From TrEMBL:
Keyword Manganese: yes
HAMAP family listed in its UniProt record: UxuA
One Pfam family cited in the UniProt record for this chain: UxuA
Family the entry assigns: Belongs to the mannonate dehydratase family.
Upper taxonomic lineage: Bacteria, Pseudomonadati, Acidobacteriota, Terriglobia, Terriglobales
GO BP terms: D-glucuronate catabolic process
Catalytic activity: D-mannonate = 2-dehydro-3-deoxy-D-gluconate + H2O
Protein's UniProt keywords contain Iron: yes
Gene name as annotated: uxuA
Name of this protein: Mannonate dehydratase
Length: 407
């Protein structure tokens, strides 16, 4: 089977070790050189040194996640062209070392966004959650962003104010730290002042401006990736809604179509994340997988549950076990296996890496203190469930194919 089971690893400081990853049954590692500042070139010798660490654990560094796109690039701020050139050189260096799947994102200012990192899960354990009300409270009463009141509206302001008043000083500090922390393993944790400064840099930048910058970025880097045989896989917005007045352009099927039209080739591919895209009820995940399957270079598989708390059109949600919630990963597994069959019949021998994206904190996960959303036991459960789903889908397809050949 061309599907490759992978495991996110944040480097030597990760509380979940490479030995742990190998024992899950994964064969590929998804990692990045987090110690190198965003916008700088990843040197060949540093890449190879990290590869040696991974190989010593009898694993292979299969996917880079993430090779960061700087805010300078997204804003076309001074220095952005240098950052694009450095990104392209890092792609060349990774290809020289045999790593040919590179995930990146185009979310302005913040990557993933959560308001709660250790929320009690309905069936036990702990999970991550995004509360639109909590986020509005942060925006309105902690960040105090200009135009926030106008964007949220009276009903949302009233809900957010009532929520904010109920929080103790310690709870307010935790909310602020959670939102400003950014992506696990990322390069920086912003302060409120830094966030205000970055928002000023984005002032006046429209959705079309953000699209135009991405189009130019792809025009510059995709030919390099094509030459090197690298798939650049853009990750969807998480959550797939505009936040803090900043446009997000990787949230819907129409967004993905537009992106893929900018460069017609495998160098311009998708990191298809069922958890991020599945937050929106208007995203039909199974249909999207069926449509975009030939251009999916990397799979993030997880599920979320939307709850009734929707304010100003922004959904609230929490992460559930992989085969629960609203993502229908069984149906998605069947669509993915259809694509695997197509690639096998077409002679495409490149693997399609997937990982159990995130996981609930189960058993002794909290004692270990892993990165939020990336516990050991919870992800082990997720990977095991996905392995079973794909095995089921493969056997079902084989049975159907055999029955179709009967005269």
């Amino acid at each position: 089977m061309l599907l490759e089971q992978t495991w996110r690893w944040f480097g030597p400081e990760d509380r979940v070790t490479l030995r742990d990853a190998r024992e899950t049954g994964a064969t590929g590692i998804v990692a990045a050189l987090h110690e190198i500042p965003a916008g700088e070139v990843w040197p060949v010798e540093t890449i190879r040194a990290r590869q040696d660490v991974v190989r010593a654990a009898k694993l292979e560094w299969s996917v880079v996640e993430s090779l960061d796109v700087t805010e300078r690039i997204k804003m076309r701020a001074p220095g952005w062209q240098r950052d694009v050139d450095n990104f392209a050189q890092s792609v060349r260096n990774l290809a020289q070392c045999g790593i040919r799947t590179v995930a990146y994102n185009w979310m302005p200012l913040f990557s993933w966004m959560r308001t709660h990192l250790h929320e009690p899960a309905p069936k036990g354990g702990f999970t991550t959650r995004f509360s639109a009300t909590a986020f509005a409270a942060f925006d309105l009463f902690m960040l105090k962003r200009k135009s926030a009141e106008e964007e949220w509206g009276e009903d949302a302001i009233a809900s957010a104010h009532a929520y904010f008043k109920r929080l103790s000083p310690a709870e307010r500090e935790t909310l602020c730290e959670t939102i400003l922390a950014g992506l696990p393993g990322g390069h920086h944790r912003l302060t409120l002042k830094q966030t205000e400064e970055m928002l000023r840099g984005y002032a006046g930048i429209s959705r079309e401006d953000v699209r135009g910058t991405l189009a130019e970025f792809l025009e510059r880097v995709c030919p390099v990736a094509e030459e090197c045989g690298v798939r650049l896989c853009i990750h969807p917005d998480d959550p797939p809604r505009a936040l803090l007045g900043l446009p997000r352009i990787v949230s819907t099927a129409d967004d993905l179509r537009w992106i893929l039209e900018q460069h017609d080739g495998d160098a311009n591919s998708l990191t298809f994340c069922t958890g991020a895209l599945g937050v929106r009820a208007d995203n039909d995940l199974r249909a999207m997988v069926a449509e975009f399957a030939p251009r999916i270079g990397f799979l993030h598989l997880r599920s979320t549950e939307r709850d009734p708390e929707i304010i100003a059109g922004i959904e609230s949600f929490f992460e559930v076990a992989h085969l629960e919630g609203q993502a229908d990963l069984i149906g998605i597994a069947i669509e993915i296996m259809r694509e695997v069959r197509r690639r096998e019949l077409g002679g495409d021998e490149r693997t399609l890496p997937f990982r159990a994206d995130h996981g609930q904190e189960l058993l002794n996960d909290r004692e270990r203190g892993a990165a939020p959303g990336y516990p050991a036991v919870g992800r082990l459960r997720g990977l095991a469930e996905l392995r079973g789903a794909f095995t089921m889908a493969e056997r079902w397809m084989t049975k159907v194919e055999q029955e179709c050949r009967i005269p």
